[in-house]
Each structure stands twice: as structure tokens, then as C-alpha cells.
Design goal:
Number of domains: 2
Strand content: 5-15%
Oligomer: single chain
Shape: elongated
Length: 382
Amino acid sequence: MNPFRKFAALVRRLRNAEHFGFYEYIVKFLTLHLAEIPEIKPLCDSFFARFQKEDEIFKHSLQAEETGPIRDLFILMRNEFMIIKRVVETAAYTDVQAEKVAAEKLSLVVKTYKKVPSAAMNEASALVINMIQDLRLSKNAASVATLGLSTHVDKMEEHNEAFRELYLARAQEIESLADMGNMREARPLTDESFNLVAYALGGDYVTAVASGNTARAAILKVIIDGINAIVLQYEHIYARRSPGATIDQPDKIEPDTPEDEIPVFAVDAQTVSFVENDGGPVMIVVLGNASRLAELHPDLSDAELLLTNADGLDVAFPIDGYATETVGESEQTTGLRVRGPSGRWFDSPFRGIGPAEAKIMNDEDALLAVLTGVIYPETFVN
């Protein structure tokens, strides 16, 4: 007789944050009752140590994945570039001869670095370094001053340096995380240690009941019931976000993809195109190994492609289904059919989309896949 609810299959299917939270509750609960179970304290200590390792990896992974502050600094830097660009473009039409001459000189510099707004963040940062050097050359410095751009050049440099410092810190964080290990390695070790604790508690309880030691059985039952209550809570959490889940039989639930195993698909930027249908334009996004995505998620009718544009604005594009083409006598899946939000395209450029900015989400906000590469290098139009 096993007094525990089935939890082995459940913990394997929990997302990383849920897995961490589940065991955090277990650790706190067992710590309160250690004095009552001194004979299995060594097993508990081993379990606590492995959970502590998972805790460290989980927190480091969150820090490594945090891209918000980096993007914020990048946007500030890029905004200064856009101010400089607009001032130079506008000054070309002024009646003030000195400003017009200055604009003509600086327009050559601006055109040289015109890719800054659309380039990937690290590439754009490198371009800005070179641009600042060119703007501060003796032949250009007077023109910068004439157009009142000195402060904006200084601010662009300041934001870019802060961006590069934070970008480097994040890279070091990722390197540190690689040395430390990952959740895929840590989670099974925590599971294994807790299984030993549960096995020992369950065995002691069965022995106490069989031998008539009611006092001992009562003490162990309180601990086992407490753990079962935590398991039950996480069964509910899993069931709420997993179609077809059953609370009493969590081991029969179709497994969910752990966060560190979310599939990644590369976008073929050269083959992004528009086609017309009855509901308006549909963007065809060609993916590498699109057939694999179709195998994992045959139906994407409830899913959206979430993109972050160059202004940091998140926009969800409903997925119309899979794009296919006939090759010989067979039909092959080539990518996604994506509709504009509310039947129209926004007029903001979506450029340099990376793993943190392009996601396929279902209607329950579950992450199905991430995309890498440029989604569309030009401006969407109505």
C-alpha cells in the first residue's frame, strides 16, 4: 500500500518555475517535521542539498533570461540615433545656409549607419560606436555643433556604453550558468532524492500500521497528508493549463514540454511574403523544419505569433494555420500562415526578431515554440 498520491509523472511535466515551487513547499514542510523523523534525516539532508542546487540554477537562469533592461537601454540608444537622423534630414531643407551645409556633410555619416534601427541589438551597438567616432572627427565636429546635436551624440554614447556593459554582464551570467549546470540536469536529481524520502516515509508508515504502532502511524500520517496536499494543489495547477488533464490520474496526462525543451525554429527571411484571401492579407512565414512543428502541434487555430516590434511594442498575430506546398505527389509543410491583428497590419517595423521576441503562444498563454531570425525586414502597411 502506497500512502502517497502519484507524483512522479506530475513533477516530470511541471514547468521549471512550477517544479521549483513544488519542491520549495515540500522542503519547508519537511523542515518543520524533521524532529519527528530523525531516522530519515540523512535522506532529507541529501534532498535539501539537491534542491538547493536546483534553486541556484533556477535563479541564475531567470537572471540570464532577463532581457527587459537590455532592450530598454537599446531603445534609448536607438532613439537618440533617430533624433540625429531626423534633425539631419530636416536641416537639409532649411533656409539657413550654415545648417544646410552641415546637414549635407552629416547625411553621409547617417546613411553609412542607416542599418542601426533594423540591425540586431549587438550589431547595432557596434555600428553606433563607429558612427560616434565618425561624428567626432574634426571634419564633422563643427557640423554636429551647428545642428545642436552634440548632446544627442553624448547621450547615444552613454546609452550604448550602458547597454554593452549590461549585455556583457548577461553573457557572463549565461557562461556562469553553463558552468553551474542546467535545469534539465538538476530536476531529475531533485526528483530522485525526494523519491527516496517518500519511499522511506511510506515504508515506515506501512510498518507502523501493520505492527499496531498507532502513535507512530499517526505522526507519519500527518506528514504524508501534508505532502499529499501539496501534490494535489499542483495537480490542479497542471490540470488548469493542460487540455484533457485529469486530477485523479496525473500520470495519464499528455506530457507538457518543459521550458528548457521548448522547440526553436529558424525563420527564412528571404521567403516571407503576403498572399490574399477572403479575410485580407496573410503573411507566409517560412520556417526551417516546419514539419516538426506540425508534428508537435498539429492544430494552431487557437495560437498566435507574438512579436515585439522595433519600439518594444508587443503585437499578437493570429495564426491562420500551416502553409504547405506540393512537392511531387506529396504535400509538405513549409511554415505558418499569419493574419494581421484585427485584420490589418501595423505600420511599425518588426525587425531583428530573436528568441526572446518571437513566440508562438496558445490561448492559455502557454509557450509552444520560439522563432529566430528576421520575421519581416520592411514596414508593415495597412
